[in-house]
Design a protein that fits this description.
This protein is α/β, with parallel strands linked by helices and 333 residues long. The chain has 2 domains: 143 residues; 164 residues, no CATH class. Helix 4 packs across helix 7 and helix 5 crosses helix 7. A 6-stranded mixed sheet has the order 1-2-3-5-4-8, with helices on one face. The chain is 44% helix and 13% strand. The N terminus and C terminus are likely disordered. The chain has 10 helices and 8 strands.
């Protein structure tokens, strides 16, 4: 009898370790248990609607195939990856993995990864790195946006920025990936404030199709990317006392151009580590360069730390606690 009970217990343990599956209209969530799977699935649908309305002005149609969403609840720093394969008609397949404490997964990682899916399905092609990351950081809360504002000013002070023309043309991550994140956010924020999110996405689309000079001229009235860059820098100078005290110089080299630290490596795997404080002497990049065994995997979209945005629905899904008796807060209404 004891052996039979031990066998039943062992089988049950193996079954539970396989996790639970929860399906929504657009996601198949594989989670440690049914409660977490249901909550993550409901939040994924919530963010999918919210981010699409925010960026596109409308909801996205249902996906032909639900997106696999694997959830790993750990005490490690939160992270996420979303992989896309593109074909002639746009996104052929996608999958998402999120890791970390359950509250951070729902409040931070998940909305960022969902934003990547909105961009991918809108453009139907890989999104320029600066716009993809800049737009995603723009979805974050004021704490993260302020941190990136300080970070970009610090980069400019140190004369470590990537020239805008180089930045706009990057198809892969450069070695100084923190510059891509910070500058991408700052430029996206500046352009959105001059217009709106839909106009910004139109600018990115025109840049991809017709070139960035044409996009700058038709969308923001600048004849060349360099003129747009100077307008962005001028705006940073004029707003240097709004929420921070950092100032920066023009950072012009004797030859008249800005100094670019490093070039793209061609490695395209994208991983994420927690963001660094912007004024550390040796800042840690938000996205880490791939290891040797990761090279060649080309479509990973990195996740970052976020805070939950203001919801657009009156009914917000509940979040299960990873520990009994622990209550997690809800997004601000």
């Amino acid at each position: 009898m004891k052996k039979r009970l031990a066998l039943v217990f062992a089988v049950a343990t193996v079954f539970c370790s396989m996790g639970a599956e929860f399906r929504t209209r657009n996601f198949v969530v594989i989670a440690p248990n049914a409660q977490i799977g249901q909550s993550v699935g409901q939040w994924a649908e919530h963010y999918r609607k919210e981010k699409a309305i925010l960026w596109l002005g409308r909801e996205m149609p249902p996906w032909p195939q639900p997106c696999p969403l694997r959830v790993h609840v750990t005490m490690d720093p939160p992270s996420g990856e979303t992989e896309f394969t593109f074909g002639m008609g746009g996104v052929n397949s996608q999958r998402m993995i999120i890791r970390g404490p359950i509250d951070r997964l729902i409040y931070s990682v998940l909305p960022h990864e969902i934003t990547h899916t909105v961009f991918a399905h809108h453009f139907k092609t890989p999104v320029p790195r600066w716009a993809d990351e800049g737009g995603s950081v723009l979805s974050e809360d004021s704490t993260e946006r302020d941190r990136h504002d300080k970070l970009v000013r610090n980069i400019l002070n140190r004369n470590q920025q990537i020239p805008m023309r180089t930045l706009l043309g990057l198809k892969e991550y450069p070695p100084q990936v923190m510059c891509l994140y910070a500058q991408g956010y700052s430029i996206a924020d500046y352009l959105v404030k001059r217009s709106n999110r839909q106009h910004f996405l139109s600018f990115v689309g025109y840049g991809l199709q017709y070139g960035w000079d044409h996009a700058a001229r038709t969308h923001y009235g600048h004849n060349r990317v360099e003129e747009l860059e100077q307008a962005w820098l001028k705006n940073l100078r004029e707003t240097r006392n709004q929420g921070q005290q950092q100032q920066f110089a023009a950072n012009q080299t004797p030859g008249g151009g800005t100094r670019f630290m490093g070039t793209a490596t061609g490695k395209t795997t994208r991983m994420t580590i927690p963001p660094a404080q912007p004024f550390e002497s040796q800042a840690i990049a938000r996205g880490a360069m791939p290891t040797a065994h990761q090279a060649g995997h080309t479509r990973w979209q990195p996740g970052v730390r976020l805070e939950a945005p203001v919801p657009i629905e009156s009914v917000i899904p509940t979040i299960p606690s990873a520990r009994t008796g622990v209550e997690l807060g809800m997004p601000v209404r």
